[in-house]
User: Fold this.
Amino acid sequence: MHFYSTNRRSAPASFREAVLGGQPDDGGLYFPAEIPQLPSSLIERMASIPLVDVALEVIRPYVGGDIPDDRLRQIVDETLSFPLPLVALSERISALELFHGPTLAFKDIGAGFMSRCLRYFGGGSGRRTFVIVATSGDTGGAVAAGFHGLEGIEVIILFPKGKVSRVQELQLTTFGGNVTTLEVRGTFDDCQAIAKQMLADAELNARAHLTSANSINVARWLPQQFYYFAALQQWQGAPPVISVPSGNFGNLAAGMLAARSGLPVSRFIAACNANDVVPRFMNSGSYDPRPAVATISNAMDVGSPSNLVRISEIFGGDREQLSSAMAAKSYSDEETRRTMVDVYSHCKYILDPHGAVGYLAIDEYLSANGGRGIFLATAHPVKFDVVLDVIGTQGNEPESLADLAHKPKQSVEIDNDPSAVRDMILAKL
Ligand SMILES: *Cc1c(COP(=O)(O)O)cnc(C)c1O
Assistant:
């Protein structure tokens, strides 16, 4: 399998090259040359096959022999080291809980897979690798957890100062060692712009190996298909509608890729907060990125979602096919809060604000169209302070958090200034 650039000017890359390179030189995103079709026998028997075996079948065609099968199995097995339970909240609606991993959010899966792939590919190259990651809250911790303590790898995390939660900040700023955390006085889009600029910097690239760890990296993006398979393993009945709380749209793009490979899903819903670039695009046909606005579901505060181009690519740019496969809705913070309160009082289920946006979208969709469905509970409610304000409890605090609270904060505050980051990287060479 090779990967081409969605801008179609850079040369195609193998899986290994795409993982190590992160992003093609022409500014596009890597996209697989073919979308593998899974045998229907696998789909039919899925519920009786261990998830690791299903996941291996899903990912193997993309890896295309760049990682030997026994190592790939080990990587998949280590990545899927925590449960992904499907929890029924009502007859119609179930939550796929993706927050039982090391940093309590779904990004642990993509980040865990990618860090293990980079570890495999990077071994013995002798060149220093810099992993540059812009985060709106969850990515940074998940990536850093995958790389912390690894020799020859430096992780640079950029996050928007004051725009992440107490627990996220703890997870981002307590690593130290080979993880440098920068608090940028700006937005997530500013952080992402700096990361892109570093990755494209010719001098830096000549002196070190720079790679991204955002969902644009295929090794972050592709394994996110796994949990859609986990959901269907636990699902009974007609193909579900699946609602995906979306920001940069990597998660949703992976789900749609899985469906394109044969996973039975009746429709996807892109559940967005006030950052409604994609819902407006679906309604009007015009794509109009704009600066992100801050919301209580801050991991989805993205004003120009990178992965929309991949979603479009899945359908060969055909808008009609896209519209029949996916709906998109935007919700305000007020609606999100009200949902958290309602669901807690009716189901005794604690939603985090991202999951709440996902719940709202599936509830509204099923009320209008009938059917049954799943929303992705993308993060643990304990990660978001607003949960306590809104419903008065965040549930039981996972033990891993108590340890972090005792660690010293290790981060550097900077202006929204790429040259400061560049200097910092140069100083580490
Ligand atoms: C990153 C994140 C999202 C958005 O996922 P994308 O792949 O960027 O669309 C949703 N919820 C949580 C909790 C996240 O961390």
Remarks:
- The two ends are 34 Å apart (CA to CA).
- The chain has a mean pLDDT of 93.
- The pocket of pyridoxal-5'-phosphate is lined by residues 105, 107, 138, 215, 245-252, 299-300, 354, 378-379 (CB under 6 Å).
